[in-house]
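quick one, 235 residues, struct below
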Amino acid sequence: MALRFSLLVHVLALLIGGNDCQPMKKAKRPALDPIKYLPEVTDKVYLDVEIEGDSKESGRITLGLFGSVAPMAVENFKSLCACDKGNGKITGVPLCYRNSPIHRVVTDFGIQGGDFSHGDGTGGESIYETRFFKDESFQVQHNRPGLLSMANSGKRDTNGSQFFIGTVSSLWLDGKNIVFGYVLDGMDVVRSIEKRGTYGGRPTAKITIVDSGVLPVEEADRKKVPVPAKSSLSL
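---
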């Protein structure tokens, strides 16, 4: 009986797919991440953030940047932290994060800044003499808190100067926003800012980047950070 069934299966396979027909295999689910570790930190910057009325929870956020994955985004962000490109061709104001606000703080999502021209999320400009530059890579997924990503206008290739730091895993942004760095130190400051957030995004306190700049990369900054085996919405 088993032999007859085996012959029947073989005959059906030949009829359906010809001599090249191969046994069907169970499809594997795509991996959550194409990489096992976060990319190596190539550059390091800082943002000194002041929360109005609370000097204790104000402080420095130090960020490691992934220059091998998103070199244009990294150069753009690093330069805007260093304030070394003069005035923008479009906005006419200094290409600089200093004295610009963290204008959007969404509870259980993240903090957003980088609009140094309007301060409300409608402005800003890249260092490349155009307002926007193209998407580079979606290799790193939004699978943990503390990741640094480019904010955009909801369309492809609309990266300017605005950025956000996630406070949760946000996998729905994969393939839409470039991840180009992560918080090396100062996640407590990010959490303090998040406490001033709302679900609508309007912060309950004035939050300002009072200083920014570039730091040397140290050996400890280059440590391998494994990608989570399983992602969740709160880590």
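The beta strands are 43-51, 59-65, 100-101, 104-106, 110-113, 147-150, 163-166, 179-185, 207-215.
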